[in-house]
């Protein structure tokens, strides 16, 4: 495995305050392993309420995007894994 490949699949979820959260980015061998790893995070805890409306804030380090539903957040997170 080259150095480029070893850093290609990194989980940088850092803002979820629940079981399974890690403080340092996790390096995984393949895109599939990264996706399976992300599933283990409880992204339901990304839900916030602003002015009575629920939004889901992306937990990826450095990403401040938000989505209107958990499904849209899951779709958005896929962008970080490709």
Automatic annotation (TrEMBL):
Highest taxon of source: Eukaryota
Lineage: Eukaryota, Fungi, Fungi incertae sedis, Mucoromycota, Glomeromycotina
Limits of the C2H2-type domain: 56-82
Organism from which the protein derives: Rhizophagus irregularis (strain DAOM 197198w)
Residues passing through the membrane, by range: none
GO MF annotations in UniProt: zinc ion binding
Keyword Transferase on entry: no
Family annotation (InterPro entries): Znf_C2H2_sf, Znf_C2H2_type
Name the record gives this protein: C2H2-type domain-containing protein
Keywords, in A-Z order: Metal-binding, Zinc, Zinc-finger
UniProt xrefs under Gene3D superfamilies: Classic Zinc Finger
Keyword Isomerase among UniProt keywords: no
